[in-house]
Amino acid sequence: MTDERTPRDRRTAGRDFEVDLDDVLDEDGDEEDGLFDNLLSGEPIFENKEVLRPSYTPDELPHRTDQINNMATILVAALRGETPSNILIYGKTGTGKTASAKFVSQELQKTSQRYDVPSEVQYINCEVTDTQYRVLAQLANTFIEQNRDWIDRRTRELEELHEQAREDPSALLDTEFDDPPDLRERIDALEADRAEMDDVPMTGWPTDRVYNEFFDAVDYVERVAVIMLDEIDKLVEKSGDDTLYNLSRMNSELSNSRVSIIGISNDLKFTDFLDPRVKSSLGEEEIVFPPYDANQLRDILQHRSKVSFKPDVLSEDVIPLCAAFAAREHGDARRALDLLRTAGELAERDQEETVTEAHVRRAQDKIELDRVVEVVRTLPTQSKLVLYAIMVLEKNGVHNINTGEVYNIYKRLCEELDTDVLTQRRVTDLISELDMLGIVNAVVVSKGRYGRTKEISLSVPIEETEAVLRADSRIGDIDDITPFVQARFEN
């Protein structure tokens, strides 16, 4: 039997509160639509939108069977109580590295519970947790919490056994305890350990102390701990290889537990900067994830769309177009999923029943603009000033802008903000960096007997770029600047 009530009826069913009728009735006595009523009136397109997000780990990963099986054959050692080899996973963004590693980790933990083998995986995103201190503190606190839980369970079991032994000493037969006082001594020792297990603060301790706390916590009970360091190159870039050095050498000192590392990186060359000893122990096994092609991306989107969308809401050309756009972005499955999700969101906002090619093209434009906005927002101040100078020139009708013109405006901006002025050579380098980011287009052209110069133009929308730059409190205070452009000599 279908529920024919309106969304409003369902939301207010069973509530006991008073409503002022003047708030919900118009002048004719009819009920007014609220802010969200029109939005709720349309049929939803999504069944489960979370399936299209990068954080989701699917129960099946098309076209990654070889890599998954390779990881499993290495990590199966943990289920035998042995130390798995360390693994380094490489591949460009959106090639399924993290999703595959998390999938294998979940399977490992399920199997370890089934066979009652103490093994587990701890995941750390090194783009967020990007210093040795934070990595060690996060790991220490995770294992401390697990140890507390283990002590609580073990203490309850021993207390029950102690009660039984007081009435019947034979209850201790086939146990490690000689008599009730021996058992009580063990319970007291566990409770004393529990009382000493304090969390590690996220700042303020010497790093050596944090490492010792982590070492003691991981070694408190028997376990094989697999530590997954996603974006491991970010950790090395910011903090050097001390963390990897310490983690990779732990097993020679641990008594009860074993530690294995899975490193995930977009940068195939990041190990070139590691200490040779770290590189040797860390890179025991290497797995490369190649980019997806358009057909593989189509399979991935088909698989996810069956779970994420209502039946028959995608037109036939939506998934092929999303796959084609993402294949141009180096086979990035994350980009393909973002496109499909954003296209669905745009269709839902338009209260349309079908996602079409037009929604995908709008989604492509929106995602590209969002990327540009985020890149511009996070630029260093000097790069923002150089970009602002280029934007000022374009707004005033200057085309084929040269480096000298940019530098003149840039110097005036620095003077107005009372900030350091970089050399023209350094500003030229910043323009090249903006070119690599796709924010400007800088082409070297020949001017014949006048030499060679760069012709610069914006590659992003002026209005949106100006809004992002002016959101910076310092740049937002700049008065309008009108450029003075010298006469140019043409061939």
From TrEMBL:
GO MF: ATP binding
SMART domains: AAA (SM00382), Cdc6_C (SM01074)
Gene3D superfamilies for the chain: 1.10.8.60, P-loop containing nucleotide triphosphate hydrolases, Winged helix-like DNA-binding domain superfamily/Winged helix DNA-binding domain
Residues engaged in binding ATP: 95-99, 292, 304
AAA+ ATPase domain span: 83-293
Keywords (A to Z) from UniProt: ATP-binding, Cell cycle, Cell division, DNA replication, Nucleotide-binding
Keyword Cell division found: yes
Any GO BP: cell division
Residues in Cdc6 C-terminal domain copies: 387-469
Statement: the UniProt record of this protein carries the keyword Protease: no
Family, per entry: Belongs to the CDC6/cdc18 family.
Xref: HAMAP family: ORC1_type_DNA_replic_protein
Official protein name in the record: ORC1-type DNA replication protein
